[in-house]
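fyi for ur records
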Amino acid sequence: MQGVGEVKVFINYSQSSEVVAMYNENTKTSNTEENDTSGGTRKIQETDSQKDIIYQEENGEKIPITQKVINPKVEGAIITAKGANKEETKANIIQAVEAVTGLPTHKIQVFEMR
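which gave:
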């Protein structure tokens, strides 16, 4: 970017990234209905579930298969840059960070690097 020299960026995240593995899930449900001699009825429902991570094997090592990766949410950005003392340059930096991160401009702070 014209007018910008050395740059340092600090990004604040709300949490770390999360990896969601794929699972093989088995669920068994059994229903039982019992009647006693005095006319009462009792219903029993039993559920048994088993959830196992699905692995692939590479070079003898089991690696979980990833279903998705949830990236952390960006909460704010602080940028120090040489040349940021000029308003036009500062506005260009803010606009670029806003475009990349989706942050509103009030969560982006730009300072002159000395």
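The radius of gyration is 28 Å. thats all i got for now
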